[in-house]
């Protein structure tokens, strides 16, 4: 063997050894990372389960205590308990208990006892009466002795339950109590919709003397599992199995009694084998990729690098769902072509398809549509692209553009797509689609021009449109600039004015006004009043909104500081984070004899930047005496948890629900539920868009407290009536 061959062989051996050692180190490192990852994931899941338990416990406790209070307040119940009238108790309680079971089916105990501890009635076992009180029942004993409410977990004869007790008084004399019990697993009722988990209950072994069933499974030295899923029991009984390392058990959730003494813990088992399998599959794929990459790097031949470059180029320029070219490829090709024709298409109401059928079905539809576009593109020598969710592009070089010919091509494209019958697994019917299209030829910005053509086609209800100067959106841009100039002029010349719409009580008496922004515009000497829909969005996008809002604050509050009615001012959530706005509000409130005459309306919006800060500002306003209202409640986004935290004085029911309430049963149901929700929290309800007497009477029947709408009065320029401004006429301005 020649020296060069020997050198090459030695080099190959050395390279192989280095690669082998490197692969071994990488493999061991990845193994360690997987074990660490599994443990971290388990800790995150366990922490999430604990948070879920605490949130559900607090929520259900509040709800059940409210329902117990309502039950105790039932007409005749206290008297029936006092007189030990079983039949009367049963007739009052059973309907309410059945209703409670429908709402909270995990309630398994509802017992009424006398002040001596004698069981009068069990709603869950109506045939049982007259049982003596179990003196080991500390919770019940305390209730009888101290005549007050308690709640906490309690170990009974067969299991552990969460108990809530309430005393019952008749003519201010303690006559007995009611006890409600619910299984602790209920507080993790949503856990299996988030994680796959096995749930059980373990009690302190010192409490086992009160249990009939002592066949539980020991957990360590101090706890015994008295209830749990079969899967959890199996793993506890065989904790040394091979699978035990991948089955994690968490006991961090304490079950405390009413004295904050820990009686036991919730036992939650998480099978991490699925996570481990996925992680190991990922490790194998990653390890395989690392091996391949190292082999490629170890190779000298330029083909290896070329293939790798080709692969990554494909990843960059290919849409992974449809395998069509993507936006990056389109941008590059647009730069490389001088004469080109571009057809942009998107699917009509594709977002509705996703909402109705789900994202997976939506993806299947996109794949089928992409196949149709690709087939059509090959027929006419186009390149096909998918550039966003439901947007597709056809692009080709074209030196001799014939508009009529391409209109026929687009017509054929639309016919091809509309004739598609897409069948998807799990959907019984064939799904049909339609598209909008815009076309542009030989422009510097063909994609943008085609987008303007589509936008115009949608407005005109046309299936497609070719770009021209007529479809250019410059006119809209010019209107935006005109409105901005109008707003700036109005701010400089005090032409931003508040209109006030009355709000009445149930007798139709005006008790409050809502301030609504208007702008006075002089167009060719003719005076016009602009409503917010014509200037507010543009003002917000151009940085003029805060000035308008501050002007409204000063004028509205200064005017009503001298009147007797309340004044309601609208705020967006982010307004509370603006120091200048808040300073103006605080300064104006000082002019009022009572800050309770100022109502701050918070308009509901998704994505509040910092809810904790918002809540602090609201709390500060409430400390000053200002009242808080939630505007447009029920308009689509309503975070009930936030409502409970803010604790507003008013809920303004969204006008879209009120407008159709006479004919729309869904609106009636939703409005009733909002009213019940507000009544239980002692919140005053206000109905907007009350247009006529029929709506007014129906809402009064439902229990609405206050009313606003054209039936009582349109927005009015009260300021000009009392002291007209120089630039305004003295007549009453209405919209």
UniProtKB/TrEMBL annotation:
Organism: Sulfurimonas crateris
This protein's UniProt keywords: Membrane, Transmembrane, Transmembrane helix
Gene Ontology MF terms: cyclic-guanylate-specific phosphodiesterase activity
Annotated ranges, domain EAL: 480-729
Name of the featured protein: EAL domain-containing protein
InterPro entries cross-referenced by the UniProt entry: Cyclic-di-GMP_PDE-like, dCache_3, EAL_dom, EAL_sf, GGDEF_dom, Nucleotide_cyclase, Rev_trsase/Diguanyl_cyclase
Protein origin, superkingdom: Bacteria
Keyword Transmembrane helix: yes
Transmembrane segments: 12-30, 286-305
Domain GGDEF: 338-470
CDD domains assigned to the protein according to its UniProt record, in alphabetical order: EAL
PROSITE patterns: EAL, GGDEF
SUPFAM superfamilies: EAL domain-like, Nucleotide cyclase
Signal peptide feature range: none
UniProt xrefs under Pfam families: dCache_3 (PF14827), EAL (PF00563), GGDEF (PF00990)
Keyword Protease recorded: no
